[in-house]
């Protein structure tokens, strides 16, 4: 049994696909999500093997969502969409398959075959890496889309990852590794990333350092990473 | 005294001749061609003639040795108008004529004096050249001639031998000549100025009329060359030119008529007049002055019209019709109206060209529209079908209803027979679309409609409302993570009808983001039909609201 996660903004589309998946007998459904943030949560908690992903979704498209998934957590992807205009792009992203809505049982059976035959490709992840423009954050019950350029630094704690900018700090489902690789942030500490062009002040302190960002927040630099940060800042 | 009266007669004859000259076709409005050699030559001939005439009309005194003359008028005026060279040449010509053709003791002195007077006029011309409004006044002509005549007397005294005779001559001629010549010159200048002013007035009046017709006809012609426009056009041209009647035809029949003979020159009648046929066939202006060539109405023997000017209207070199100006028997066809009529032909033709261009543009809009309608949005269709299939699992009745809505929506999309719909029909079309979208975005979208029931029969171009609502979904609420709201309102406001489609996404990016085409077509069609006061406007507050407002005429303005 493959663990499957459905991501589609339309409730009827999710219902229909989950019925179809159940009928194949090949999947255990770990979740059915309507937006990117809950999808990232479900991927982390449900560890799906296959993602059935709609491309056209509000605020964050299916393609954007893929960029936000940590390589370590990335399932195999089947795109499910109403129109084939994105087919080429989908296969460039190394999707296992591409389903057109409405989906027929016969067509879905072929997808199941493909998933069973095609081995997981470790190269896929690197090909999915596209820069992230907006970072989805939890803000109360709503989802806030923070401009990646606005973020001064990111930190991880036991509670999770927070991105911090002049407007405050926001919880995000993205991992530090994703932010480092695709959102233009630089690792300066095991638990911190910083955007170097937002650094205004560097205080050296016994082999380590503290950076002050434009909005006056302090970010620690570890001894191990200080030489690299100094090199990149040219000091 | 007798001499003075004779001299007054001479001046009267002069003024009459000059007046006639000014009235004749040989007279040209003064300023423009003076500086050219041709203009100067014409002035030389005219004023030499006047000066020589002054010799002949003069009154001999002192046993024929001298002539009380008005020669100076010619040479001084020539100098004033044309400069020293012209003045001296005219003076010299008249002087040589005086010496050779008439003789007498004072002849030589007179010839020299006249030449110098021409030179004096020329000097005044040079002095005041930059201030023509001062130069061209009767006062300047008077003073210059007065000085010239006093000088003339001095020269007679100096050059005439013996001295006693000179004194006798001056005694006889001084008073009448010094008194009369300046008056004559001033009179000439007055006549000349009057004539010029008249010319200016006529020119101003015709350009004013032409501009007025242009202004009044522009909007009319923008609607194209058709019968409804033709009668209004005929009325405008008649009112502005004041002719007896104006007709407008296409290449086959009368389209519009205004004025005399309207009882039998009815719109719709085929063209009968040979003049009109000639104008149409040759693409030239045809004029029948009513005297040498008369307009004979072929329709009614009691037709009062006798003269006509027929001006062809053309677009891209092809004759599309004529404008005809008529005068009845007993009224002369004014030259001014003739040139005005010809000018109007050119003006209306260029307005037609503009309207033809507009028309082609709107045809293009129409074909774009057909294309847009025929283009089924694949996302909408397949998502709708997917939704219906999903619902079919649990609720067969609801999916049946949705399928019927979907068929209604596409049926309306494919129907192209009528170009105009009522608001009720548009709302029905939109309603089918809304039912599908509400099902697709179940639980995420709220739609409110507030349409004044009194507006149900309001007409608009068909397929107007749907693109606006589709835009509110496609480029509006479908991009929202939270709840989406779409409101459709229609009501009267400020004497117009305002239809608003509003969404709470605030995602409008301007016409460049692809949302444009459908809405642009709506805007173009509404403006084409009702004028630029109507059409679409979009307000957007980012992330809060996009409001598309459609203004339509409240009264059922019948589309032209």
3D architecture notes:
The complex is a heterodimer of chains A (235) and B (560). Chain A has 235 residues and is an alpha/beta fold. Chain A folds into two domains: 2-127, Response regulator (Rossmann fold, 3-Layer(aba) Sandwich), CATH 3.40.50; 134-233, LytTr DNA-binding domain (OB fold (Dihydrolipoamide Acetyltransferase, E2P), Beta Barrel). Chain A contains eight helices and 15 strands. In chain A, the strands form three sheets. Chain A has a seven-stranded antiparallel sheet with strand order 7-6-10-9-8-12-11. In chain A, strand 14 and strand 15 form a beta hairpin. In chain A, helix 1 packs across helix 5 (105-117). Chain A is elongated, with a radius of gyration of 20 Å. Chain A starts with a strand and ends with a helix. The model of chain B has no long low-confidence stretch (mean pLDDT 83). Among the domains of chain B are: 2-202, Arp2/3 complex 21 kDa subunit ARPC3 (Orthogonal Bundle), CATH 1.10.1760; 222-360, GAF domain (Beta-Lactamase, 2-Layer Sandwich). A five-stranded antiparallel sheet of chain B has the order 4-3-7-6-5, with helices on both faces. Chain B has a five-stranded mixed sheet with strand order 9-11-12-14-13. Chain B has a two-stranded antiparallel sheet with strand order 1-2. The A-B interface holds A 9-13, 15-16, 19, 35, 56, 58-59, 82-83, 100-103, 142-143 and B 378-379, 382-383, 385-387, 389-391, 393, 439-444, 478-482.
């Amino acid at each position: 049994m493959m663990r499957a996660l459905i991501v589609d903004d339309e409730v009827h589309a999710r219902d229909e696909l989950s019925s179809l998946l159940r009928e194949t007998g090949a999947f255990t459904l770990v979740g059915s999500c309507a937006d990117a943030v809950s999808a990232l949560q479900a991927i982390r908690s449900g560890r799906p093997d296959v993602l059935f992903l709609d491309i056209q979704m509000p605020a964050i498209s299916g393609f954007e969502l893929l960029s936000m998934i940590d390589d370590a957590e990335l399932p195999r992807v089947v795109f499910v969409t109403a129109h084939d205009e994105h087919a080429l792009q989908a296969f460039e992203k190394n999707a296992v398959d591409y389903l057109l809505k409405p989906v027929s049982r016969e067509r879905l059976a072929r997808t199941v075959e493909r998933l069973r035959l095609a081995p997981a490709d470790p190269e896929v992840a690197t090909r999915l890496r596209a820069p992230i423009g907006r970072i989805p954050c939890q803000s109360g019950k709503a989802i806030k889309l923070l401009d990646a350029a606005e973020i001064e630094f990111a930190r991880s704690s036991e509670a999770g990852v927070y991105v911090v900018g002049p407007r405050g700090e926001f919880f995000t489902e993205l991992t530090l590794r994703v932010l480092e690789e695709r959102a233009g942030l630089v690792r300066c500490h095991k638990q911190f990333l910083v955007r170097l062009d937002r650094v205004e002040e560097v205080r050296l302190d016994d082999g380590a350092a503290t950076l002050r960002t434009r909005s006056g927040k302090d970010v620690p630099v570890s001894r191990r990473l200080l030489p690299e940060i100094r090199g990149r800042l040219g000091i | 005294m007798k001499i003075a009266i004779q001299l007054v007669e001479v001046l009267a004859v002069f003024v009459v001749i000059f007046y006639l000259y000014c009235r004749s076709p040989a007279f040209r409005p003064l300023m423009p061609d003076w500086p050219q050699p041709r203009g100067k030559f014409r002035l030389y001939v005219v004023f030499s003639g006047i000066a020589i005439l002054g010799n002949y009309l003069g009154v001999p005194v002192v046993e024929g040795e001298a002539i009380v003359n008005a020669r100076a008028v010619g040479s001084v005026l020539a100098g004033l108008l044309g400069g020293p060279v012209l003045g001296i040449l005219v003076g010299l010509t008249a002087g040589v004529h005086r010496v050779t053709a008439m003789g007498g003791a004072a002849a030589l002195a007179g010839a020299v004096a006249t030449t110098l007077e021409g030179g004096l006029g020329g000097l005044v011309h040079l002095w005041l050249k930059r201030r023509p409004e001062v130069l061209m006044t009767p006062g300047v002509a008077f003073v210059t001639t007065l000085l010239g005549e006093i000088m003339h007397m001095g020269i007679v005294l100096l050059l005439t031998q013996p001295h006693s005779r000179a004194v006798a001559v001056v005694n006889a001629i001084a008073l009448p000549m010094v008194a009369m010549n300046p008056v004559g010159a001033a009179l000439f200048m007055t006549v000349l100025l009057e004539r010029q002013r008249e010319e200016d007035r006529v020119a101003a009046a015709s350009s004013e009329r032409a501009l007025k017709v242009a202004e009044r006809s522009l909007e009319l012609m923008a609607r194209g060359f058709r019968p409804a426009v033709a009668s209004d056009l005929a009325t405008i041209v008649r009112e502005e030119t004041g002719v007896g009647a104006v007709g407008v035809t296409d290449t086959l029949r009368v389209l519009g008529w205004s004025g005399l003979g309207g009882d039998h020159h009815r719109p719709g009648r085929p063209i009968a007049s040979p003049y009109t046929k000639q104008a149409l066939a040759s693409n030239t202006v045809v004029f029948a002055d009513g005297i040498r060539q008369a307009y004979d109405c072929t329709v009614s023997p009691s037709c009062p019209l006798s003269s006509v000017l027929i001006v062809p209207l053309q677009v891209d070199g092809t004759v599309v019709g004529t404008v005809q100006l008529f005068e009845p028997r007993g009224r002369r066809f004014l030259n001014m109206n003739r040139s005005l009529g010809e000018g109007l032909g050119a003006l209306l033709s260029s307005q037609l060209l503009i309207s033809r261009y507009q028309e082609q543009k709107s045809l293009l809009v129409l074909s774009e529209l057909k294309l847009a309608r025929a283009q089924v949005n694949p996302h909408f269709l397949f998502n709708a079908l997917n939704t219906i299939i999903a619902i079919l699992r649990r609720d067969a009745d609801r999916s049946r209803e949705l399928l019927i809505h979907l068929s209604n929506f596409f049926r309306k999309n494919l129907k192209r027979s009528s170009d105009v719909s009522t608001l009720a029909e548009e709302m029905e079309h939109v309603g089918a679309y809304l039912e599908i979208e509400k099902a697709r975005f179940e639980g995420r979208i709220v739609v409110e409609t507030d349409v004044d029931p009194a507006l149900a029969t309001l007409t608009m171009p068909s397929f107007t409302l749907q693109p606006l609502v589709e835009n509110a979904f496609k480029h509006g609420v479908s991009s929202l993570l939270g709840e989406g709201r779409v409101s459709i309102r229609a009501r009267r406001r400020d004497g117009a009808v305002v239809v608003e489609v509003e969404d709470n996404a605030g995602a409008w990016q301007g016409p460049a983001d692809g949302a444009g085409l459908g809405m642009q077509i709506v805007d173009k069609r509404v403006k084409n039909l009702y004028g630029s006061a109507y059409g679409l406007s979009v307000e957007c507050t980012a992330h809060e609201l996009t409001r598309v407002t459609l203004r339509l005429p409240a009264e059922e303005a019948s589309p032209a």
